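Hi everyone, sorry if this is the wrong subforum. Our group has a chain we'd like a structural model of before ordering constructs, and none of us has done structure prediction before. Sequence below.
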Amino acid sequence: MPQSENSADMRRGAPKPPPAPPVDPHSEMSADLRAAKKAAPKVKATAKAKPATKTKPAAPAKVKPTKLSPNGAAFIGRFEGFRGAMYNDAAGHCTIGFGHLVHHGPINGTESAEFKAGITRERALQLLQADAAIAAKCVATNVKVPLNQAQFDALVSFTFNVGTGAFQESTLLKMLNAGNYAAVPGQLERWSRAGGRVLQGLLNRRHAEGKLFSRSAYQ
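Answer:
Right subforum, don't worry. Here is the predicted structure as tokens:
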């Protein structure tokens, strides 16, 4: 039986399709591909964010007192003695309260009605606090190291008693400004003499000032 032409073709195998022509880099299709690549967004690699570093809180500022406190005034009052009525002090000057000078010279009737009527202990403490302002200013100006209120009050008590000049020239001030806080109580006790001998009243005051400075003990 004669075989068909198609059968012969099948025996010989179908011809392979021709290979696809290479893409011309300058062809229209190639241009479209290049445009598509340019239009695609580029993804940038991002570095991992570093964790925020914790900042230490700022240390609180150390504020040096500048005024004698009410407790400090009461402390000084323990050693000054209170008199509600006017009197002439040892030097013959008109005085009232905790040694508040009304005027130079003896009582003469020109004093204010308030002082003629007498004053309370609370009013006397207010006057004492005002009278100690010069001593407080001296301490605040000359001490160069930080102080708490009790330390400041102790030094004001001392300065109010011995005078601003004595405090400014004292070894106590030099040692304190060098940072030697521990030396202050001992230096205070050196100022317990009058007339070449130790006075118990002054020694008691210096001991109390030392305790106030080192332990904040107002009583």
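For your construct planning: Residues 70-215 form a domain with the Lysozyme fold (CATH 1.10.530.40). The chain has a mean pLDDT of 82.
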